[in-house]
Amino acid sequence: MSNMISGIGAGNSIGSLGSIGSLPGTAATGGGADAGFGGILNSALDQVNQLNSNAQQQIGSLLTNGNSDLSSVMVAVEKADVAFQLMMQVRNKIVSAYQDIEKMQF
To answer: What is the pTM of this model?
Structure first.
């Protein structure tokens, strides 16, 4: 997922989630080993996990050291939340599509 959501750093805006067009394996990159649908989903899940880890680290740093800026911690938490919600919606659409295909008669 490191290529799915660009600009994870604390100084970047939440709007960086809009860079989904730069997914690995899309027509712009020409494909590769991770060009499949499963590879893209795994990459996206890795990115969500990375955002969650970053938020947890910043929360821990704020609680233990008090050196972190509260606004940057809140931005990291919101990024992780938005990314998780996005992945849940993608999962719901995939499950719905699978159920529709399952109902088809051939």
So the answer is: 0.63
Q: Is residue 37 part of a domain?
A: yes
CA distance 66 to 47: 27
Which residue segment(s) compose the domain that 94 sits in?
Answer: 14-103
Q: How many structural domains compose the chain?
A: 1
Comparison of pLDDT for 12 and 90, the residue scoring more: 90
Task: Identify whether 33 is part of a domain.
Answer: yes
Q: Tell whether 91 is covered by a domain.
A: yes
Residue 43 lies in a domain: yes
Instruction: Round to whole Å and give the CA distance between 4 and 22.
Output: 6
For 22, residues 6+ apart whose C-beta sits below 8 A from its C-beta are 3, 4, 6, 28
What is the per-residue pLDDT across 3-62, written as a single tens digit (0 to 9) for each? 333 343 434 333 444 444 444 444 444 455 557 989 999 999 999 999 999 999 999 999
